[in-house]
């Protein structure tokens, strides 16, 4: 199974799950500040996860904290810890001299109340003395945690608006990775969620979730269909959709999160066009891209470990252009991370890793 979660896109999904796990623990922490008595729906997670590993992000407040009870379970492996530490080491090794590198190590860990002078010391501590989620809480950079929290709450809010609108009962998550919305969101009976991703990603995902749902029961009542396919093999997954009840005459919500940076502009345009062709009036789409201007984009070739380094094929500061060209022309929004900070009234202290359009979300509706 190690090969499955450390190869290609699936490894990125594990890292994102780590951020969502920290956001979820932060959510519980914020709820406990408000009231010692948690909502009944949160008790299974509180009793089985949070009480055992109450590690959270200090920078996430109640304004952007969100609840993904299954993200934690993807982080509870030796491999997930190593994935995070490998990325951290790659990042630190960008610093040209060992002296400067070790000064940064000391600074980053001192912010978490730990004293280390070298990468080797910190890695040894995390592997030998920490659980996986504790390692995530120590090593995850604040800016990355906020990036994940912001896009997570925006997309969750978008889904919730559609869930409350009973006219929308079809949801598609392309490049689903370790997304758990099909289980954790309150989809009503009669709704259907389709996920599309590679078979090896689904193998790991199902292995983990089959155990996790016994601890945290899903609240969704939707049917769930996982379709193993390359998202660019559109005829394959569209055919599978038809066989499992997809109705082209009814509105559909489409989500492309953490996907299109692996595709060329031409492939994105083709994919969006295929989506449009099977989307009825009233359908909507959310697409997340890597921006061209942000700090992370500028250093991506050095930050991301092989084999991901060469897999990012596109970046866009205006994902709304992709969707408007294929017919999703109503109520278009193009939201940078700074836009989301303003929307959720969240203040984030700027630093050398400050948010300046590293991730951009486009939203549009089909007339």
SSE arrangement:
Blueprint: H1 2-6, H2 9-34, H3 43-50, H4 71-74, H5 78-92, H6 98-110, H7 119-129, H8 132-139, H9 142-164, E1 170-174, H10 181-184, E2 192-197, H11 199-215, E3 223-228, H12 234-243, E4 252-256, H13 265-277, E5 284-290, H14 295-303, H15 320-324, E6 330-336, H16 337-343, E7 359-365
Parallel strand pairs: 1-2, 1-4, 2-3, 4-5
Antiparallel strand pairs: 5-7, 6-7
Helix pairs in contact: 2-9, 5-7, 5-8
Organism: Heterostelium pallidum (strain ATCC 26659 / Pp 5 / PN500) (Cellular slime mold)
InterPro entries: Ppm1/Ppm2/Tcmp, SAM-dependent_MTases_sf, SAM_mthyl_Trfase_ML2640-like
GO molecular function: methyltransferase activity
Structure characterization notes:
InterPro entries: Ppm1/Ppm2/Tcmp, SAM-dependent_MTases_sf, SAM_mthyl_Trfase_ML2640-like. Pfam families: LCM. Keywords: Methyltransferase, Transferase. GO terms for molecular function: methyltransferase activity. Belongs to the UPF0677 family. The protein is built from 16 helices and seven strands. It has a domain at 143-365: Vaccinia Virus protein VP39 (Rossmann fold), CATH 3.40.50. The protein starts with a helix and ends with a strand. 49% of the residues lie in helices and 12% in strands. The protein is α/β, with parallel strands linked by helices and 367 residues long.
CATH topology title of the domain at 143-365: Rossmann fold
Q: Fraction of residues in helices?
A: 40-55%
The major beta sheet can be summarized as: 7 strands, mixed
Helix/strand order, N-terminal first = HHHHHHHHHEHEHEHEHEHHEHE
Distance between the termini: 44 Å
Question: Quick check: average pLDDT?
Answer: 88
Q: CATH H level of the domain at 143-365: which superfamily?
A: Vaccinia Virus protein VP39
Strand content bin: 5-15%
Number of strands: 7
* The CATH C-level class name of the domain at 143-365: Alpha Beta
Shape assignment: globular
Tally of contiguous helical segments: 16
List segments where confidence is low: pLDDT < 50 over at least 5 consecutive residues. 1-9, 301-309, 351-355
What structural class results from the helix and strand content?
alpha/beta
**Roughly how many Å is the radius of gyration?**
20 Å
């Amino acid at each position: 199974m190690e090969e499955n979660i450390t190869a290609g896109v699936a490894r990125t999904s594990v890292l994102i799950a780590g951020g969502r796990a920290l956001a979820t623990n932060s959510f519980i922490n914020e709820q406990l500040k408000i009231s010692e008595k948690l909502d009944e729906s949160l008790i299974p997670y509180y009793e089985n996860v949070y009480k055992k590993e109450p590690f959270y992000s200090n920078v996430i407040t109640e304004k952007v904290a969100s609840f993904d009870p299954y993200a934690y379970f993807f982080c509870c492996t030796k491999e997930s810890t190593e994935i995070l530490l490998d990325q951290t080491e790659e990042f630190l090794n960008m610093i040209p001299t060992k002296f400067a590198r070790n000064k940064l190590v000391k600074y980053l860990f001192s912010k978490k109340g730990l004293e280390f002078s070298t990468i080797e010391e910190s890695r040894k501590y995390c592997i030998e003395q920490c659980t996986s989620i504790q390692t995530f809480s120590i090593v995850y950079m604040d800016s990355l945690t906020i990036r994940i929290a912001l896009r997570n709450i925006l997309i969750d809010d978008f889904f919730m608006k559609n869930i409350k609108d009973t006219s929308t009962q079809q949801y598609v998550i392309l490049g689903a990775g370790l997304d758990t919305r099909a289980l954790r969101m309150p989809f009503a009976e009669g709704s259907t969620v389709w996920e599309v991703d590679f078979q090896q990603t689904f193998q790991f995902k199902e292995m983990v979730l089959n155990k996790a749902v016994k601890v945290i029961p899903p609240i969704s009542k939707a049917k769930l269909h996982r379709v193993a396919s390359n998202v660019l093999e559109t005829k394959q997954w569209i055919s599978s959709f038809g066989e499992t009840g997809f109705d082209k005459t009814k509105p559909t919500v489409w989500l492309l999160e953490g996907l299109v940076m692996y595709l060329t502009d031409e492939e994105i345009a083709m994919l969006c066009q295929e989506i449009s062709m099977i989307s009825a009036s009233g359908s909507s789409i959310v697409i997340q891209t890597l921006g061209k201007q942000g700090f992370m984009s500028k250093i991506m070739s050095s930050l991301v470990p092989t084999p991901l380094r060469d897999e990012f094929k596109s970046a866009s500061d205006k994902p709304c252009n992709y969707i408007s060209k294929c017919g999703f022309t109503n109520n278009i929004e193009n939201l940078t991370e700074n836009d989301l900070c303003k929307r959720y009234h969240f203040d984030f202290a700027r630093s050398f890793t400050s948010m300046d359009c590293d991730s951009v979300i486009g939203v549009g509706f089909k007339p």
